[in-house]
Amino acid sequence: MSDSPRGSALRLIFLLKTIASGPHHFLLAELAESTKLPKSTLHRLLQNLVQTGLVERGRGQSYRPGRELYLLASQLVSRFDLARSAQPFLHALVEKWQETAVVCAYSPADHLATILRTVQTDHPLRFAVEQGSRFELAWGALGRSMLAFLSSGEVEAILREVKTGPLSGKPRPRREEMQDILEEIRRDGYARYFDGGFDIAGVAAPIFGADDEVLGCIGMTMPSSRFQPDLEDEQARSVREAASKLSEMARICYS
Predict the structure, then answer these.
(1) What residue ranges define each of the domains in the chain, with the CATH number in brackets?
(2) Which whole-number Å values give the CA distances from 185 to 15, 128, 145, 159, 169, in the listed order?
């Protein structure tokens, strides 16, 4: 867990996010350990959340996410649930190409992406993708397919933060080389990635919402040893079509 924020408002938001991603029942001491917040501060914040129904008292001294929190989440999800909406497209990609398909969401707050849903290929030789994991946008087809379509300010901020690759430990490409890579992605409408040293390859395309903001991406990952350059165009077309349909659905929901 990263250092806890300062200020009541930020701590309250931080606490809600921790509760939403944690176990269904929790004790004050357990929450203090995971958030690194003083118990006195947590107790005060929890009382505010209990009063609003966002947190409820459980058995004994335990707490649990409140029904009002579930209601808020369901109201947002009912508008457009990217993971659920992408599910049939992921299965279609796996059925057609026999490669693992992935959908990711972009978080502008911390410039990271989250793997929302994966559908694994049955092929015994495959690249494992962990659902729920977070990653930087400067690496791989998934990350770069989103990075290329962010504002110049966001791209600059992300490139300043990123120094070395999470798998290789190699420094990221020089700024001029990255700009060329991103320009090619914008031109083609998808990103490709190939690293024979770590046996990983993939293709991915961005998903847009209202006002063309980047919501995430959809793509396929595979061992580089099974990547076939002569199939890249067709695979790219498949992921671009899936991304386009998901973007259309999102724009309708957010309009």
Answers:
(1) 8-75 (1.10.10.10), 80-254 (3.30.450.40)
(2) 38, 24, 7, 16, 23
